[in-house]
């Protein structure tokens, strides 16, 4: 033998694929050869796949159908066998019960001498009942056998244990039945008592024993009872149990019939289904292959012609050849496309030139559109800038309108306060002079109307002062329980007059807050609840949360519609007061609550259900400290201070206010000096033998002068004469925020028009009782109101209801 050759294989083409990279047989069959054969192979493979899927689906469906049908057959057989067994059991029990009532057995109990002649043959006639072998024993009342039916065999006999069970049944004195297991076999053992009319106790008994399996006519069924242990069932087996309806003697045993069978009839299924399906599948696959081969050859005829035409063009060049078009399928479309390609070979250059011209036109069009888009973008930017400027101008106009509204309200409030002040003072002076005169009732009504108007003006003042930022909280330790107790004492009787129960929940919470402002918030919320509650109750209480203290006011009033919840904290907005009834408030209480809560850093919100009530919650984000409960002090009855005697200088450019204030001061026992300007006041002071004890000056005087300038001039004149400065008070009707800030910054005591007679009396009393430092204007510090402990009228207003 020659040695093996090394190096490259001389018989292998240089571009051949290496054996390791050669495609598989299946790949070669699908990618090489004629299209008709490849189409037939692909169709055959798809047919095999479809046949497998259809066969599997048919197998699953048929198996489930046959399994369901098989289970129904098993259940039907079990029910039929159960009904047959029920008939046998009922016949057996009825026959033995009738036998126990037979006169032959009664005679044998009395005369046992002739039992061989008639009793034994009689019992022997009952060897089988309904073709079922039965062993019967007839005994006396002690359970001793008298006679039997003579049926004794290896599988059915009366055992000593059976007789022992019978004696226990006789002792019980009533029929009994049981299932016994002897020698691997189950037996039905039952006894009937022989009780005759002459006695109520058993005179004897009839014991019968039956093989359980002999009662079942179905060869694969068996009887079971409730005492049997359940037998495990093989995975490929099913079992059907049917309870038996038997007589009362046997019903306590719980006898049921159990029939086992194979889970699915797989043998029968495979015996006919798989061969049949296999033959049908093979025939279908053969038909698919032959048909697809013929169809593929017909469909690829045009492709073979195109192949030959392309080869001739590649060899000889294009000489006007045309492809033959057959039909209107995809191959025909390919032939038409091939012809179109041949028709356009000569016109390729012309088409290129036309496309170049179109490209130039398109580029010019795009450039024009880009310029147009840039112009439109510039126009859009200009429009956006105009819109922004218009929005800014609209915002500025809105701010100017808001400022104009504020100035208008301030001017209107000032102009209203001037005549109201004169009315209040003149009415108070008239009331003091009338005394018990019959016209004093009319003055009382006039004072009530003035009081309502003053409350409206004071509420507007409170809103203005909060907007002006002149209210500064004075934080100190506050007993919340004392505030609750004080409010309950004040509002309990008012609520009772409306038929509403008002109660506060006692609490020992002490927190750091401004007592006046906190009580004003709670008071306004209680007033609001009382105003809109006509029945039920109002509850005031608090609860602690994680890092927050919630003060809540519950009521059972008219409630608030959801669309009004966002607006109830606006000024002059009332949900249920279209007629603006003064008895239902002014619509400013909740607005003051919202501003005070914002000032103190609190949060107030409301939850309400129409016609069910509301709950206002004040959340205080400060840790509440527990402290011993502080008993609220009883509120002392307010008494008008005794002003004593002194001289008061009144500076006001309004003659009515000046006259009313002068009359009231004189009615209170003082002497009043009235001036309309600072110069007039200085002229009058030079004519007085003693300096004034009190100076009351209006904030705005004629010709742009202010009351502050008048007070400074009076103080300077008195200082030059060596007199001490009197108590100086600035009286103003302005509610503009900037005016309030200027007035508060003066350091003098500020009173806002309209002031009542009791406030004038308190000023007169303070002027006589005060010491050298009674006038805070000398040091320009905050003036303390002795009655309220707050800075002038600015904070005392928040303590008034």
From TrEMBL:
Residues 1-23, 771-801 are annotated as: Disordered. It is found in: Membrane. It holds the Pfam family HisKA. Residues 647-768 form the Response regulatory domain. Residues 411-624 form the Histidine kinase domain. Residues 363-401 form a coiled coil. The modification 4-aspartylphosphate is found at residue 698. Its EC number is 2.7.13.3. It catalyses: ATP + protein L-histidine = ADP + protein N-phospho-L-histidine. GO terms for molecular function: histidine phosphotransfer kinase activity; phosphorelay sensor kinase activity. This is histidine kinase. Residues 10-21 have a biased composition (Pro residues). Keywords: Coiled coil, Kinase, Membrane, Phosphoprotein, Plasmid, Transferase, Transmembrane, Transmembrane helix. Residues 297-350 form the HAMP domain. The chain crosses the membrane at residues 39-61, 269-291. PANTHER family: HISTIDINE KINASE (PTHR43047:SF9), TWO-COMPONENT HISTIDINE PROTEIN KINASE (PTHR43047). One of its GO terms (cellular component) is plasma membrane.
